[in-house]
Specification:
The complex is a heterodimer of chains A (395) and B (510). Chain A is mostly helical. Helices cover 75% and strands 1% of the residues of chain A. Chain A contains 15 helices and two strands. Chain A has a two-stranded antiparallel sheet with strand order 1-2. In chain B, the strands form three sheets. In chain B, strands 6, 7, 8, 9, 10 and 11 form a six-stranded antiparallel sheet that branches. A five-stranded antiparallel sheet of chain B has the order 4-3-2-1-5, with no helix packed on it. Chain B has a two-stranded antiparallel ribbon with strand order 12-13. Chain B is globular. Chain B is 57% helix and 14% strand. The chains are: A mainly alpha (395), B alpha+beta (510). At the A-B interface, helix 1, helix 3, helix 4, helix 5 and helix 6 of A face helix 1, helix 6, helix 7, helix 8 and helix 9 of B.
């Protein structure tokens, strides 16, 4: 039985409704397009601001001037400005390199562990926790790195280096000890929860390394590691150095890489890994030979996005590196990154001047670089999704 | 889910390194948070004052800060905060542990917080005021009473100056009647000032040097060694309150952070007022109105990628477009009489909010889009089939279901904006803003003024102060406050999202 149709609405009312609909659609369209255009205008604006640098005569800045190993914007009177972008680019890449060197293994390790071994309930708790880590403001991380960690490492250089070797060794040691445990104990400390129960053990190791380090330094380096480095390798040590920046920025980059890599790994259709295990592979073998190759594009895009973040991060580099425009390979000396240079120098630059436009050029370079890297990551990721679709189970 | 291996088989060491990296990441996060919590909250605890007698008979009173190995590794030395900058010229003293003959905690040691020269640590000998001279224990009770009275008088004076005199001075040009009122107010201020001035304290440092201290420069006094734990708790609570409610003193190296809290909150509020409607509009447009073709797809990718563009680039854009571009033109059109000193042509609250709004737009757009994608298409089709227009379908059916997702997006945007400092350094943050951007004067919110910001406060105090070591506790406290605010915001967003997933289930993305 069909209900009779309701009486037709009044034509006047109908007209008002359709008018309202059109107006609202127009508003949404205008607003949406406006916002999108405004956002995309950032790149266009930067290009417009930079263009006079090369087009107008008399600025005296050509490609050759930009390719110099000296950045000295000439803020002091009587100083001839020298606008070589080399040291800035070098500093940026150096900071990003050390950050990634520290962050990528940790983030990927964490992603592998949580995608493969962790019980789902624990994993659903771990993800938001690491998200909180990502939300830590850069100035707080930079402050802790620059004013707490840097002087501390400066005083306990040997201890800090001992930690670099001691922590991985400690993890392996824990694994070895676990193998020797009776099965009842092994069940009580399952590998899936190792992320939690290893924490006190690692904390203990940190304590032990610090306690032992003066003794180690005395034994191996004659009580003066700094001098030993200087004499043996000619390495200068400054307290705010690339290692500190790498550590602090790595801390900021880990959660981002982790989240994307974990998504990629746990998105791999489960029948692949299960098939490998049914054929007798261990979990680690199935990960290494089957799951990781399948998820490789996702992992790669995670690392790329992490690299984009590390290149553009301002406050951490500003506060934890000495901001000296050096060009050395030495990880124990400071550097000056592009983003930090903008933050320091742009407020003082004269609008429209050469220095001002050059800083805009630096900003444009950052913009283009991160935009390209992210787009590339997105494309790689899209390939991953279509691959999963092909492989069967749709994530 | 990959099946669990029943038989424990040898998998080598790499799984342990993977497990260890989870543990290490969590350990670093826990370490950072507990460092901030312990040092930030410990700052307000009235630490005991140690009277140290050295082998050679010298004495000093101070709070132990930390210990170090001596450079030649022969022993250890300890750093004491001995204050008394006016007597010693420095506030820190390193003491070799082997030189210490005796340590004690006499109950009569006082700590005075002063407006000049920082804190004083030592003994109170006498108090001279208009009603006479008090010595010993009586001086201490008299001092407490005087300080209470002084606080009331100071508050009254500051209120008069800020709320009566300053507006009157501004009115003076137009309104001749203001002059008599102004005279009355300033007479009252002079009277108050006269009552504040006058008292004197006779102080003695533990090594016997005497000092006359004008009473009006003393803000607070306490005897940490004589305080019971409950009294210390009360003092701690008051300290936290003062930190939150008072303005900074002594070039930001002491006092509270109230203007920075106010500036941060106001800026973030303004930003969310801008970012919410535009972000939601753009999200709706991209997902519901625009033709879903190749172009829309590209735009969506571009928007997502803009979230990864470094924040400093947004700052550069804000400086070029908002401050020098729009702000400069506004100045020429409307504030030409004030040129060359810029009104809108310099960094300010409005430009900072707009820059951060641009910075956080992708966050809101992406969150809105995800929320919209979760609404099943049959809901939309059902609404349209019942004769609803598109707008009715959106406002009555789709948007109510998406609201929590949008809220999550806005909260995440706010959390990101609250912690962002780099772009603000270009578009309007100040290390010390004399005027809060909101006051009783028309138009009440002054969008062109510079403002203080918690994050920038951290950077400024930590890197531009004279004595970083002395300002460190304050930086810890500020950092803790900022982190707490951001953690609470993020936890709210996580909770909301969890709630959302539980209600709608995980729907496939496009």
């Amino acid at each position: 039985m069909i209900d009779p149709l309701p009486p037709r609405a009044q034509p006047r009312h109908q007209w008002w409704r359709s008018l309202r609909d059109r107006l609202a659609t127009l508003l949404i369209t205008a607003g949406g397009i406006g916002v999108v255009v405004a956002m995309l205008a950032i790149g266009v604006f930067l290009v417009l601001e930079v263009a006079p640098l090369f087009l107008e005569a008399g600025h005296g800045v050509g490609w050759r001037e930009l390719w110099q190993p000296r950045w000295q914007p000439g803020t002091l009177p009587g100083e001839t400005p020298s606008y070589g972008l080399q040291p800035l680019a070098w500093g940026t890449l150096k900071a990003a390199f050390w950050a990634l060197l520290f962050a990528v293994p940790l983030a990927l390790g964490a992603a592998i562990h949580s995608a493969l071994y962790m019980p789902p309930r624990l994993r659903s708790r771990l993800k938001p926790t690491l998200e909180l880590m990502e939300a830590m403001p850069g100035v707080v991380v930079g402050f802790v790195a620059g004013l707490v960690l840097a002087p501390w490492v400066d005083r306990h250089l040997a201890g800090a280096l001992a930690l670099l070797i001691g922590l991985p060794a400690g993890m392996l040691l824990a694994g070895l000890a676990w193998m020797r445990l009776p099965p009842a104990w092994r069940r009580r400390f399952p590998l899936g929860w190792a992320g939690l129960w290893l924490m006190p053990w690692l904390a203990l190791l940190v304590g032990a390394a610090l306690w032992l380090s003066p003794w180690l330094e005395a034994m191996l380096f004659g009580g003066d590691l700094r001098g030993w480095l200087e004499v043996r390798f000619g390495l200068g040590v400054s307290s705010r150095n690339a290692l500190i920046v790498g550590l602090a920025m790595g801390f900021a980059v880990i959660p981002g890489i982790y989240a994307l890599a974990e998504d990629a790994l746990s998105g791999v259709p489960s029948n692949l890994g299960e098939g490998a295990q049914a054929l007798g592979a261990t979990r680690w073998q199935s990960l290494w030979k089957v799951v990781l190759p399948a998820a490789a594009p996702g992992v790669l895009s995670a690392v790329m996005i992490g690299a984009g973040r590390a290149v553009g991060e301002t406050m951490i580099v500003l506060m934890a590196s000495g901001n000296t425009a050096l060009m050395t390979l030495n990880p124990l000396e400071g550097m000056r990154s592009m983003a930090a240079t903008i933050a320091i120098e742009l407020p003082e630059a004269v609008p429209g001047g050469v220095h001002y436009r050059l800083l805009f050029l630096v900003a444009l370079a950052l913009f283009v670089f991160t935009f390209l890297v992210n787009t590339l990551a997105e494309l790689v990721h899209a390939r991953l999704r279509s691959r999963y679709r092909r492989l069967g189970g749709m994530s | 889910m990959i099946g669990r291996a029943r038989l424990p088989r040898l998998e080598g060491g790499l799984p342990w390194l993977a497990a260890g990296s989870v543990a290490l990441s969590l350990l670093m996060l826990a370490g950072l948070l507990s460092l901030l919590a312990v040092r930030g909250m410990g700052h307000f605890w009235p630490a005991p004052l140690t009277l140290v007698t050295l082998e050679d008979g010298r004495q000093l009173a101070g709070q132990a800060v930390r210990e170090e190995r001596l450079p030649d590794a022969s022993g250890r030395e300890r750093l004491y905060l001995t204050a008394n900058r006016d007597l010693d010229g420095a506030i820190w003293t390193w003491v070799d542990l082997e030189e210490i003959a005796e340590e004690s905690h006499p109950r009569d040691l006082v700590v005075l917080e002063r407006t000049r020269w920082g804190t004083f640590q030592g003994r109170l000998l006498a108090l001279e005021a208009t009603e006479g001279r008090a010595e010993g224990e009586a001086a201490w009770t008299a001092l407490q009473a005087h300080l209470k009275e002084l606080a009331v008088l100071r508050a009254e004076r500051d209120r008069l100056r800020d709320e009566v005199v300053v507006p009157l001075v501004r009115r003076l040009e137009r309104d001749p009647r203001a002059e008599t009122e102004l005279e009355r107010a300033s007479a009252r201020i002079h009277e108050l000032q006269a009552r504040i001035m006058g008292g004197r304290l006779l102080l003695e440092s533990v090594d016997g040097r005497r000092l006359e201290q004008p009473l009006e420069q003393v803000l607070r006094a306490w005897r940490p060694n004589a305080m019971s734990p409950p009294a210390k708790m009360v003092a701690w609570g008051r300290g936290v309150w003062r930190f939150l409610a008072e303005g900074p003193r002594a070039a930001n190296s002491a006092g509270g952070v109230w203007p920075a809290i106010f500036g941060t909150v106001l800026m973030v509020l303004l930003m969310s007022v801008v970012v919410t409607p535009f972000g939601v509009l753009a999200g709706i447009y991209l997902n519901e109105v625009a033709h879903q073709g190749r172009l829309t797809h590209l735009v969506r990718i571009a928007v997502r990628n803009l979230a990864g563009v470094p924040s400093i680039v947004y700052g550069v854009f804000g400086l070029g477009v908002f401050v020098y571009g729009i702000g400069g033109s506004l100045d020429e059109w409307f504030f030409a009489d004030r040129l060359p000193s810029p009104t809108f042509g310099t960094g300010g609250l409005l430009w900072a909010s707009l820059t951060l709004a641009l910075l956080t737009l992708p966050v809101v757009i992406v969150a809105t889009e995800e929320g919209l994608a979760r609404v099943p298409d049959n809901q939309r089709e059902g609404a349209l089939a019942l004769g609803a227009t598109r707008v009715e379908m959106l406002t009555r059916v789709v948007l109510p279901m998406t609201a929590p997702a949008m809220l999550t997006g806005v909260i995440l945007a706010v959390a990101r904006a609250a912690g962002e400092v780099a772009p603000l350094m270009l578009v309007g943050v100040a290390k010390l803003a004399p005027q809060v951007p909101v006051d009783g004067e028309f138009p009440f919110i002054h969008l062109e003024r510079k403002f203080m910001h918690l994050g920038y406060h951290i950077y400024d105090v930590a890197f531009h102060g004279d004595d970083v070591q002395a300002a460190l506790p304050l930086v810890y406290a500020t950092a803790l406050l900022l982190v707490l605010v951001i953690l609470v915001l993020n936890l709210t967003a996580i909770f909301l999202r969890h709630h959302l997933r539980a209600r709608h289930g995980a729907l496939p993305r496009r």
